[in-house]
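Action item from last meeting closed. Structure (275 res):
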């Protein structure tokens, strides 16, 4: 573990990514404390104001403080990303392990379903699912989760096929260990490195897709303080009041950048082929 941390610390870009992600997580936790206002509170007398001491990030078309909405939106963004990754990871690991360990008809059935899902563009599939379920942030999270499951299932299946032929697994089988014990003690623990890397990069993709669905009106609904929705609300004023779009967009881009840098650093650190 110490060697892994030392190797990770040598990657300056990855360290910067961790700092960015940590800052956003801190804002998500302390948002209500740092801001005394209500993110949905309107004040039409102060609508579309530029950045100032009173409103550091300005106000939107309804006079709502953009900084307050970004602080509250950080919580929604983080929760949405973690929910998507956690749910898709659990389901993907379950399907991947079953498919790779047992093989045969079960493997063919699961992988054909995954192939069908992968054959469709992620974002198009997410839009299709939300169109069926209805526009809402919860439905957008469900849709993005479904699009991410095949990636985990494919990676886990591939690793499981390799691991079940390993000497220690064959020895456990010869000693009469149950399938459940072999999976829990010998297969899944050796998947941790790949899953961590895939999950870290997956959060960035999940956050982007959820924000994009909200931007299109298929995710979070007004007056929710969500970064993608804030971008959508400010696009009509991009020429007259660019701060309404630029600031939420910059915060979202910075968070996604931090996640990608951290994910790349973890990949380079944990992947034995890159050591």
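Sequence:
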């Amino acid at each position: 573990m110490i060697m892994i941390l030392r190797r990770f610390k040598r990657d300056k870009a990855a360290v910067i990514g961790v700092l960015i992600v940590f800052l956003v997580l801190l804002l998500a936790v302390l948002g209500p404390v740092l801001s005394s206002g209500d993110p949905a509170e309107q004040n039409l007398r102060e609508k579309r104001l530029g950045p100032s001491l009173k409103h550091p990030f300005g106000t939107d078309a309804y006079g709502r403080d953009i900084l307050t909405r970004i602080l509250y939106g950080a919580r929604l963004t983080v929760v949405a990303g973690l929910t998507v990754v956690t749910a898709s990871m659990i389901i993907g690991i379950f399907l991947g392990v079953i498919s790779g360990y047992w093989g045969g008809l079960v493997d063919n059935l699961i992988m054909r379903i995954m192939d069908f899902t992968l054959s469709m563009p992620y974002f198009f599939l997410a839009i299709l699912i939300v169109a069926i379920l209805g526009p809402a942030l919860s439905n957008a999270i469900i849709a993005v989760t479904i699009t991410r499951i095949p990636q985990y299932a494919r990676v886990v299946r591939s690793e499981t096929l390799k691991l079940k032929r390993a000497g220690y697994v064959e020895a456990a089988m010869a000693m009469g260990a149950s399938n459940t014990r072999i999976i829990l003690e010998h297969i899944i623990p050796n998947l941790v490195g790949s899953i961590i890397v895939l999950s870290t990069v997956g959060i960035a993709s999940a956050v982007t897709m959820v924000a994009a669905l909200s931007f299109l009106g298929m995710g979070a609904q007004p007056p929710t303080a969500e970064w993608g929705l804030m971008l959508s609300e400010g696009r009509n004023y991009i020429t007259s009041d660019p701060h309404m779009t630029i600031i939420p967009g910059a915060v979202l881009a910075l968070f996604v950048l931090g996640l990608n840098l951290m994910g790349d650093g973890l990949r380079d650190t944990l992947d034995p082929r890159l050591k």
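Note appended to the action item: The chain has one domain: 2-274.
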